[in-house]
Batch of 2 targets.
Target 1
Amino acid sequence: MGTSNIRHPIFRETLAQFAVNGGIEFASIADVPAGTGMGSSSSFTVGLLHNLYAIRRKLVTKEQLAQKACEIEIEKLREPIGKQDQYAAAYGGLNMIHFFPDDSVKVEKIQLNDDFLDELQKNLILYYAGAQRKASEILKEQKQNIEDGQKKDILIEMTHLVNELKATLIKNNMDQFGTLLGRNWKLKKRLAGTITNTKIDDAYTLAIKNGALGGKLLGAGGGGFLLFYCQKKRQEALTSALGLRQFNFKFEHEGSKVIRIIDEKAGYG
């Protein structure tokens, strides 16, 4: 069976890029459902690419992985998405990512001490709000609004928040981090009517009333996961008030990596 018969678009296009036509098996395991704003599609693309490069014994940089993933998803599959998920998956860690008009990308690692990162993670809490959705539909509306000039000022203001957030982290001003998350969410939901809904808005309002200093819906919008900044001592009350499923997570610092390559001829890895 040729790659043209494969129904999964990312599998089909990626395998075609590597001229794979048979005799290969892949397994993919995820902790979160697709279409929930967690960058799962781009993480899958980056991971699949890394596997294929490893099979061919070809060393590849994180930049090359991210670029190739963007090429497949944006150029080949015509998904109306940005590049942030591919670069986040490839690089890992806490970064400030610069996207330039000439399509180049610069990843700037934000250097923070381990104690601060540990405390920040403890004060972040994630809930599953349900409602899987296809990000491309929301992004198409958002793109149309921006092209019409209605929402460009909002995007500019959101980019200014990036520098504020970086400065806040460097100064170890943890609570201000939560406030900036909230400011970002208020701006983001004005970009398109499908980004939020009554259920999400009600949950957000309830969270603020029960100890959260700020938060946002992850991904394009419409559903998925709500991330809140809430001091550890108030999280139990917050969880009880929301009645949503809490989803445990940890910061990931390494990005995509090959854990093991099995040498089939020798019979060991």
Target 2
Amino acid sequence: MKGSSSRSEVLSDLVRSYRIFGAIGWGDLGDGHISARDPERNDCFWLLKDSVPFTQASVDDLVMLNQSGDTVLGEGRVNAPAFNIHCPILTARADLNAAAHTHTPWGTPFSAEVQPILPITQEACIFHDDCALFDDEEVQIRGLEGGTRIAQCLGHKHAIILRNHGLLTTGASVASAVVRFVTLERVAEAHLKVRNPVPISSTAATQAHSGLFRESRVRAKFEYLAEFYGID
């Protein structure tokens, strides 16, 4: 993983991310996953093992998989769709070190509209020209082929709306992917609540985009999330 993060730091962020999602009320049915590329073995990544509530996630509950789906470190079964989605994305994008997806109160219904993100709020500008739309009816990703199509649709962007499924975000770090996800959920909420949105221009959205999301500020936002929800 790029940067100076150690494995212990990455795993700590990953556990805290699952707990943040759980504290918000997401993943109560185990319907979601956050991945982290291993900083020592870039061809492997970590996921939370199946049947562990997000609110109770610990480092001991994490499993490292290789690109073949074999367990390298840790013990326990991993959600198969999680591997099928995350592996192709992290394999295709060396600049990405994490991805986040779960079913949410606003993101999932918004995905059923099969509409792109429009610059109707300040936060929406973060995703201006940086959020793909996966217009595909495979909502249960049963194999790597489905995940590969998602990765291809994502391209060089950092977020994607999975039709009739929900939201997925990525980042250079776990913190980056999680902050993007929380923000995109709020953007989806705005899209569903506003009756007659009037987007700002593409030029104005582009100008706003450049200053709204910076990797140098991600850590502070992530720590604020953790503090807000009481996550150590």
